[in-house]
Amino acid sequence: MSKSEGSVSYKKADASYFDKRGLRKYAGIWSLWALGVGAVISGHFSGWNFGFSTGGWGGMLVAAAIIAVMYLGLTFSIAEMSPALPHTGAAYSFARTAMGPWGGFVTGLCENVEYVITPAVVVTFITAYVNSILGLDPVWSPLIWIVFYAIFLALNIFGLELSFKVTLVVTVISLAVLVFFWVSALPAMDFNRWALNIGVGPDGAAIELPEGGGDFFPFGISGVLATLPFAVWLFLAIEQLPLAAEESVDPKRDMPKGILLGMVTLIVSAFMIVLLNPSVPGVGSFHLASSLEPLLDGFRAVYGDGGVVLLGIVALTGLVASFHTILFAQGRQIYSLSRAGYFPTALSVTHPTYRTPHVAMLAGAAVGLAVMLAIWFALGAEQGGATIGSVLLNMAVFGAMFSYILQAISFILLRLRQPHIERPYRSPLGIPGAVLTIVIALVTLFYQVQDPNFTKGVLWVAVWFAVAIVYFGLVGRHKLILSPEEEFAIEHAEGRTPHHVIAK
Fold first, then answer.
1. pLDDT per position as a tens digit, 271-282
2. Are 243 and 329 in contact, with CB atoms under 8 Å apart?
3. pTM to 2 decimals?
4. Topology at the third CATH level for domain 2-493
5. Per-domain residue ranges of the chain
6. 130-134, 325-329, 418-422 — which is least confidently predicted?
7. Which of 125, 193, 213, 411, CA to CA, is 20 to 30 A from 403?
């Protein structure tokens, strides 16, 4: 049976279609909390610190506070939408109900860029730590990427229970490592001498102040705003939590609690790491502004180089936690778009034994690795290694910012147009919180454009979008499936009370 809605056509899949695409329920509140926090926690180990070069310490702190407000507006909105629309599609599902098939597809594409590229960014940081620990030549980096992808794809594929248990364990260990660092750094910290050791040279670039005592905002308000894209790394990917909706035991109760507990955890951790990591004697904001391993640098400053291998392994845990959890999100995001027919439906077939979207995870990993290897071999080992992290990070943040804007718009439209949808949780920030998210995301994008690496990233994303939109326009829109997200959206658009639809 088929039906049409506007410019798209649907077909009703039989039971066997969903039998091959079934997911298993397992996650409770703490599994969801671990999934959200684990996805982000690598941003407290590496990446955020580059913002010292554009804003100094004060600029980084205020930028982090502004971005935290953006994420609070976003997460409160998601906490309302996810139990109201408890489908694996998450951002695509919200936008599909609010803005129709094309709006849902474009939002899904933005999120797809984020979740395919972010693991690639994280694995470059992992490789930097491994090279430093083992003293390896960077020429071996592609092999390390492949090994880590293989290990954590296997953990994600061979059982939902295993995946969530690994997520919980590595997330708790990662937070324990951070707390251990905070406790170690507090007695030694010298904030004025080291955190404030950045000044501004004649050319406007950051310079080191040997005695510290620099300005709180060495680059002024413009420096604070220029630091916003780097502060995003402290919270990026917390929004992936709703992708586990169909694997949650009770999404209407647990999803809002998991999201908001995760956000509180990350705000505390972000403040502590921004305060303490640059304040350790011998480290400082100026050095961290170009460091690929800031937490390891902090441990070295406190404990010396004697235990560098052990300290390096300890510092790796946060990166591993994020890599593992974002691979989880990548698989569910591709799976949901494929199950509904936006992507080729073969991508949504789940493992017959473990009921995990193994095809989607393998496909997403293959694309991420292919992009990394293309840059590596096109530019050579030395230049390629330096370029991959910056270009891919900008691609990931670009996709994320547009995804946030579209999710906030979806929230506003759902509030205004579909107030009858059952909402087990309501955002205390309401529409103003969503508007604030949109404004901060737009400002962040504006300042991201100032980064020359941004242009390279945007060109790659534009190609990605062009290919996907052409496919959807010519093929995908004529082959949509009445998946749970689609039936929910259609029936609410038609003003009917939807029947409960579950993919077996």
1. 999 999 999 999
2. yes
3. 0.89
4. Amino acid/polyamine transporter I (1.20.1740)
5. 2-493
6. 130-134
7. 125
